[in-house]
Design a protein that fits this description.
Neuraminidase, 4-stranded antiparallel sheet, mainly beta, globular
Length: 180
Amino acid sequence: MKPVVRLLVPLLLCCAAISRPAAQMLKKDAPVRVGHYHLNVTSVSDHKRFWVDTLGGTISACEIGSSGELGPAELIVTIDPKDGYPDGPTIDSEGCIWISLYAGWEARRYSPAGELLARVSFPVANITKIAFGGPDLRTAYATTARQLLTQDQLDAQPLAGGLFEFEVDVPGVACPLIAD
């Protein structure tokens, strides 16, 4: 079975709290508005969409109807700002969502219902994205950032800005290519 690709483009948001995802289906040659964004990933079954509000510290989800319409939003995770800011989501083959924590020193794995299942610590503060690779998609790669760190922080985190890898028990999902 070939995965269906749905590309949703986040729209400009004027408030932090929304009741449904601020995204629209991208059509070929359609104009795109750019502004505050939410990062989107779709579940393995292609029936659920997750999005991360980095500044709001939340992960939300909604069902995707058979014709691509988005159902009501459901808040599934709230992360305290002292724990970092959720960023860079991806999905594994069990439908769990992995997020990185900017200024949080770790990546986390949550069930589709929002239960915290795993944590992976890093020697740097700013984790930006998790992606799966390797021949069996059981190697997770994490990008990190150096931006906004002071010289003292950089001295304490000499690996900041580096690429890290770690092994996972549950493989990731191959991302379909978007082509014309």
